[in-house]
TrEMBL record:
<dbReference type="GO" id="GO:0016887">
    <property type="term" value="F:ATP hydrolysis activity"/>
</dbReference>
<feature type="domain" description="Mop">
    <location>
        <begin position="292"/>
        <end position="363"/>
    </location>
</feature>
<dbReference type="InterPro" id="IPR004606">
    <property type="entry name" value="Mop_domain"/>
</dbReference>
<dbReference type="GO" id="GO:0016020">
    <property type="term" value="C:membrane"/>
</dbReference>
<dbReference type="InterPro" id="IPR003439">
    <property type="entry name" value="ABC_transporter-like_ATP-bd"/>
</dbReference>
<keyword id="KW-0500">Molybdenum</keyword>
<dbReference type="InterPro" id="IPR015853">
    <property type="entry name" value="ABC_transpr_FbpC"/>
</dbReference>
<keyword id="KW-1003">Cell membrane</keyword>
<keyword id="KW-0472">Membrane</keyword>
<dbReference type="InterPro" id="IPR003593">
    <property type="entry name" value="AAA+_ATPase"/>
</dbReference>
<dbReference type="Pfam" id="PF00005">
    <property type="entry name" value="ABC_tran"/>
</dbReference>
<dbReference type="GO" id="GO:0005524">
    <property type="term" value="F:ATP binding"/>
</dbReference>
<keyword id="KW-0410">Iron transport</keyword>
<protein>
    <submittedName>
        <fullName>Molybdate transport system ATP-binding protein</fullName>
    </submittedName>
</protein>
<keyword id="KW-1278">Translocase</keyword>
<keyword id="KW-0067">ATP-binding</keyword>
<feature type="domain" description="ABC transporter">
    <location>
        <begin position="2"/>
        <end position="240"/>
    </location>
</feature>
């Protein structure tokens, strides 16, 4: 593996109906996860980093190499960037053996055949398919092909490794082993990497930091556990499995745009700053009539869906007539017995109640 290098990107790209404006710095050996809904700009970002897209302005530097400098007219093409890619599909050459697939990159760089073959077989051993070196892709399972693809991405010793949802196409049995393998190989090799994923577990296991894209802009960023434990956007809340309500911090509570107060425990929040109230769906009690007594956070919702989840059922809410828009998308996790006892169906109006002790209020600093 080559010495770890850092990444510095500042770029804008404008197309009909969409624009991307990003500024990123990734430290040598760091893994950065990029999250975001469809259309947020993740693929565009990967295109700029890989060389498939030219930004309209800005620069890209990997280590001491300038790969893009729009003002200076510099643009290094894909094959000279030293950037590796592991995508959803393995995309192996069907007519080559696993070893020949992995050796292809080093050979294209001018590495002698014997050295490239030795490197390929060593990497195949590291990813756990050394005994399959002479097989062609058609003789390998999907998980085995993805392991070969990882070895192939690492074989040219890239300064930067791009991981484009590398586990999305794997079956449920192969995914945990591949995730663990990625963590070991990337960490042991101190590989600088950028991971695009929709899976919070991928980010937690593999990434040091997270960037959340929304509408071509960075909506939030920070240490992985901080972003997923204290989300500042609806998307990161959903991917972390949490409920989120936006508003303004007010005297230890959250005041929504329509003036409703959500009570909770404030976490480093200044009155008047943008903030969010966050709580897990398991903290939500569901009632068919408005509850009385201790709950301080009570709001009416309309059930949009009932989703079985193992030993619980997730009740997904929408906003009924006259209810605030932030109700839409909230969720509650209850037992199947509770659902049966309430006798509720999609389209019914119910009440969500959340104790203040279960709610955390975080500033969004935006």
């Amino acid at each position: 593996m080559s010495e770890s290098v850092g990444l510095s990107l500042q770029a804008s790209l404008h197309r009909a109906g969409f624009s991307l404006e990003v500024s990123l710095d990734v430290a040598p050996g760091e893994v950065l996860a990029v999250l975001g809904p469809n259309g947020a700009g993740k693929s565009t970002l990967l295109g700029i980093l890989s060389g498939l897209l030219r930004p309209d302005s800005g620069h890209l530097r990997v280590g001491d190499r300038t790969l893009v400098d729009v003002d200076a007219g510099e643009f290094v093409p894909v094959h000279r960037r030293g950037v590796g890619l592991l995508a959803q599909q393995a995309l192996l050459f069907p007519h080559l053996s696993a070893a020949a697939n992995v050796a292809f990159g080093p050979r294209a760089q001018g590495v002698p055949k014997a050295e490239a073959d030795e490197r390929a077989r060593d990497l195949l051993g590291q990813v756990g398919v050394g005994e399959l070196a002479d097989r062609r892709p058609s003789q390998l399972s999907g998980g085995q092909q993805q392991r070969v693809a990882l070895a192939r991405a690492l074989a040219p010793q890239p300064g930067l490794l791009l991981l484009d949802e590398p586990l999305a196409a794997l079956d449920v049995d192969a995914t945990p082993a591949m995730r663990t393998l990625l963590r070991r190989v990337i960490r042991d090799g101190k590989q600088t990497a950028l991971l695009v994923t929709h899976d919070a577990l991928d980010a937690l296991v593999l990434a040091d930091r997270v960037v959340v894209l929304s509408g071509g802009r960075i909506a939030e960023q920070g240490a992985t556990r901080d972003v997923l434990a204290r989300p500042r956007s609806s998307f990161s809340a959903r991917i972390a499995g949490l409920d989120l309500i936006p508003g303004i911090a007010a005297s230890g509570a959250l005041r929504t745009a329509d003036g409703i107060e959500i009570h909770g425990a404030s976490v480093e929040v200044t009155d008047g700053e943008p903030a969010v109230a966050v709580f897990p769906p398991s903290a939500v009690a569901v009632h068919t009539e408005r509850p009385t007594g201790s709950p301080r956070n009570v709001f009416r919702v309309r059930l949009a869906a009932l989703e079985p989840r193992g030993d619980t059922v997730r009740l997904r809410a929408s906003a009924p007539d006259g209810a605030p828009a932030w109700v839409d998308g909230l969720a509650a996790d209850v037992t199947p017995a509770a659902v049966a006892e309430m006798g509720v169906d999609p389209g019914d109006d119910v009440w969500f109640a959340v104790k203040a002790a279960e709610v955390a209020v975080h500033g969004t600093h935006s």
